[in-house]
Amino acid sequence: MAVDSMPPIVFTQLNYLLTHSPHSIKVEQMWSGSKNPALLDRFTLLIPFCLDYIKWDVIYNAQFPLLAPDIVFGPEDENFRPYHAGGEGDLKPKNSLSDWNCKDPTRLLSLILELRSLYMAYQKKRVGEVDDERLKFEINTIYSREGIEMYMSSGVDKPEEVKLAVPLLEMDLNKMVAGATWRHQQKIYLQVIYPVSRKYLAMASAPRLKLVSSPELKAFFSIDEFRLPSWLDGMCMAEYLPTLEEMLESQIRDAISSIEVRRRFITALAIPFGRPVESDPIFCRKATFLACSGVFTFLVHITLPLQFPRQQPAVMLQSSQHFHSHPGNAPIKSAMLQDYPWSPRWDVAEMAERIFDFLVEECLNFKKYCNEVLVQQR
Amino acid sequence: MDAIISLNKIQISGPTLASLIQRVSSAAGDVDGLLFGRVSHIAPVTLSDDSSSSAAAATTSDQPNLIATVTSFFSSTSTSTFYSASGQIDTSTLNNLLSTSDDRLIGWFSGRRKTQLRPSMRESSVTSALASSIQFSSQVQNSTETLTFPPCVFLLLTTPFQDQLIHTHEYKAFQFRSSTDSFDPKTLDVVNLGPAFRGHYGNFITPNSPFPDLSFRVKGLNCESMVEDEGEKEKEKFGTFCDEGFKIGRLKNLMGSDAANYTAELEELYNSMIKKLNGLAKMVEQSSAKVLEQENHNMKLRYKVAGFE
User: Fold this and answer.
1) Which of B86, B159, B179 should we substitute to test contact with A (largest number of A Cβ atoms within 10 Å)?
2) Quick check: pTM over 0.80?
């Protein structure tokens, strides 16, 4: 990020926004609007909304960095008027811009958050205006759930549809995984997309459903593995969601208990291999050990899949003595080894022992391979 | 009701548009300002060879055929001069700005480099507030009924995101409709010199843009020192020439026996005109240098406040 060329007053506001936002807002690009193009005073923010991003251009004036910024919304949101002044003499409600203080670094963030919540209300209103019986019914029946985001997608060459992002499970995932250091709240959402049909259909087709999770969650729970319960004819969201949540909750509990299984396995590996050089203490997905065979010293990287112990860990060897001449003198590594004797029914001590036995043989092959590579490089 | 009146198109003269673009592209940062002009009613032309099109014209002629004409503009050196950060109109400042001009307010413009060619959040609020203000409305000219027209014209000027050699600027004109709370894009008709426009062009008031609003008196602007290096006599003589004008009848004297005297007289006139022009040019040069110096100084102060250095 070109820090030097942004007016410091603006930079502190942007920096505060990026580090303190409850949503993970990103800056897509920054550029200059002044005659002297070295001064960056405008940038595009990618703001997560309804499992997608909305792009807003924030426009400062580098010549007058003390002035409040202006915002250009996306091309589909031309009718979004967050601070509509109304007629003369109306009561002017206070908003984040009305008493702008450029010295306060929190202002940009509070402006964006205020606009985002107004945008949420705006989209909700648009969805509410859609003349579709089934949609009206669905929205009314799940209205009591908190935090639902809606988005009405319409455009010249796009089909009219309503997107819902329904947050699932009331439990706080951040607190369930011991020691997790996620900065943002982890959540699983059900994305529901209803095509808008103007006429009443007795047998409406199933909406398009997709489970989406915050990206960091993948470290211990894979939503791709989760099979959505089937949508029966004539079903509605209010019926569907409880079943889904029940299934999801039990699988998440399994995922959390499987962290413990992986931890016990890594502890067991320490008996034949010695203390790990490095290991993932939170999700227990990775461990690295230092091993030697005679004078040949190498690292053993062990990666544990989420389906452990059903699926065996992947092992990779990395020499501490053999290096590629180029590029960059990288150490020579073996291929992923995933085909060695394995049974999920063994206890963890036996699993560790079997891997060790396998590597006693395999490391000789790896040593031979390393020497061959060195010969070729000469 | 102002809400129902839809403009047919928005006109602007070539020089006004050119000086507007020049203003925006020469500014250090973003600028905005007011657009002046008038809104007039044009009698619908229903005469046509084609009967079907005349029928169509007859149905649309219920709507008054209005054309907004931008004749001049006022711009300051920054944005947010007559409105607040959240887009509310500062009525007293706007009245103050308008009091210096005889022209009628029909809208405003915003110039911002390298941005999307659509109204921003604040621009929408400002335009909407202007369009709903009865106070700043003007009368429609040539209209049979009394129609008032609020300042609802908005002209957006920007430059492309990538620097280009040929395509250096973009603009779009809108009319804000209070009834639907939306911007209607309108064609901006550039009235230029040329055979097709000759009659039309005469209708324009001489394109001008007022001197920027300065709250203090500029020293030396009104002083009579332009030809001070010349003698009083010269000045007087020049004065008389100017007062009398050089009548066409006297030009006849250039022919015939007395021609020599008159040629000298004419040359003298030209000489003093050139001297006066030179003096003016010198003054303009000096004052421009002072303005530049002051602007640089102001910019430094602003950077200091913004935390640079």
Assistant:
1) B86
2) no
